[in-house]
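Support request, please re-run this one:
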Amino acid sequence: MNLEVVTPTGSVLSRSVKEVIVPATDGLMGILEGHADIMVGLGDGRLSINDGNESIQADLKGGGFLQVDGDRVYVLAEFVYLVN
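Re-run finished. Output below.
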């Protein structure tokens, strides 16, 4: 599936991934290939991304939204700080 991480200032990350774990407003949520289409609110916390070869971590601040649309996952957040 394809992941796009975007802030108001532009794209932070765009790549093909196997798994995404996000801090939804009501707890951590995991997204794998084939996940049903959904839109959820995001809280502050750690975004974890696994592309099959490496794991990427980022901190989300200021809230936002996650949308799954077919094989595309969009993370729209106020602030994203890549940890590694």
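The chain has no helices and eight strands. The radius of gyration is 11 Å.
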